[in-house]
Design brief:
Layout lengths: L1 E5 L8 E5 L10 E10 L1 H8 L3 H4 L5 E2 L3 E9 L11 E5 L11 E4 L4 E3 L6 H6 L1 H14 L7 E5 L4 H12 L3 E6 L4 H7 L3 E4 L12 E6 L6 H4 L3 E9 L4 H10 L6 E4 L6 H12 L7 E6 L3 H9 L6 E5 L1
Parallel strand pairs: 9-10, 9-12, 10-11, 12-13, 13-14, 15-16
Antiparallel strand pairs: 1-2, 1-4, 3-5, 3-7, 3-16, 5-6, 6-8
Helix pairs in contact: 4-5
């Protein structure tokens, strides 16, 4: 099968198109013929070697977490899926495998593809959508009528977070640059802050939850804008954020958290429900063929993508 692989950690041109063995499934797995994938920042961080303490030094590696495709083989122990079913889902990013024509997966990591979405749109949804859903609901404990600030509202995670928070009945303020203000408003933000012309964290503005999909807000500043029992949730763990989380534990009424998402069928079905009900749409900036994955990674690394970057396979 055709796959995009790395044979060493390095820059985008480290990605090469190679012929690789087609995966063989076990009794509890399915084989998916992949039609589309997408780029998430974690993918190029793995490619650069930033996570090699977890990903190790065994090469070649096929990267990629998100996928959409068609079931072509079903293990004897799998029920609920048949050959020909259209599905979408994600593998753990550190495991990868989605930048290829075929991928073996567990039933718990996929769900039926939303009929309203193209293959590229469906492939762009899982990792970023689950990050937004689990971050807001499970870690941020967002409730109806809460006020939430979404930093990085025009990016992959942010575009989903704005819509999911609105669907949950929250009052949404988004943060983005000038050229993306109108898009974020159309996604459901009641108020939009242009970080290029105004201060993002103003003590006179209070929130129950600050959801940082950009990873550049400090707890020291954010806590001034939180109600008692408010929370700052960051989607991008870092040394600084870990230190901030430790500092937040010294506070009585305000917290900071980070998290790693858990791919699961139930939450993928929740994303599908939101899409089916017209409450969640996928914003695609660009679609690249697998052969131009290096260009897709380069564009993602600029940090200026509007929504998601999809890969056609």
């Amino acid at each position: 099968m055709k796959a995009a692989v790395i044979e060493r950690y390095g820059p985008p041109y480290s990605l090469k198109i190679r012929q690789m063995p087609q995966p063989e499934i076990g009794t509890s797995e399915l084989l998916v013929k992949v039609s589309a994938s997408s780029v998430n920042p974690v993918d190029w961080k793995i490619r650069q070697g930033d996570l090699k303490i977890v990903t190790g030094n065994d090469f070649p590696k096929i990267l990629g977490a998100d996928f959409c495709g068609e079931v072509v083989a079903v293990g004897a122990g799998v029920s609920g899926y048949e050959k020909g079913d259209k599905v979408f889902g994600m593998e753990r990013a550190v495991k990868g495998g989605a930048y290829a024509e075929y991928l073996k997966v567990k039933p718990s990591t996929l769900a039926p593809k939303p009929a309203k979405l193209s293959d590229e749109e469906a492939a762009a949804l899982p990792l970023a959508g689950l990050t937004a859903l689990q971050g807001l609901r499970d870690f941020g404990r967002l409730e109806k009528d809460d006020k939430v600030l979404i930093n990085g509202a025009s990016g992959g995670v942010g575009t989903f977070a704005v819509q999911i928070a609105k669907a949950m009945g929250a009052h949404v303020t988004g943060v983005c640059s000038t050229s993306k203000l109108e898009m974020v408003k159309l996604l459901g933000a009641e108020k939009v802050i242009d970080y290029t012309t105004e201060k993002v964290l103003k003590p006179e503005d209070k929130y129950h939850l600050i959801f940082d999909a950009h990873g550049n807000l400090s707890f020291g500043e954010a806590q001034k804008c939180l109600y008692d029992d408010g929370m700052l949730v960051t989607t991008l763990p870092s040394v600084k954020s870990i230190l901030d989380i430790g500092f937040s534990k010294l506070q009585k009424h305000k917290q900071m958290k980070t998290f790693f998402i858990t791919p699961n069928h139930a939450d993928l079905m929740e994303l599908k429900r939101l899409v089916d009900e017209g409450k969640l749409k996928v914003v695609i900036d660009k679609v690249y063929p697998l052969e131009e994955l290096d260009l897709a990674h380069s564009y993602s690394e600029t940090g200026h993508a509007r929504g998601k970057i999809a890969i056609s396979i």
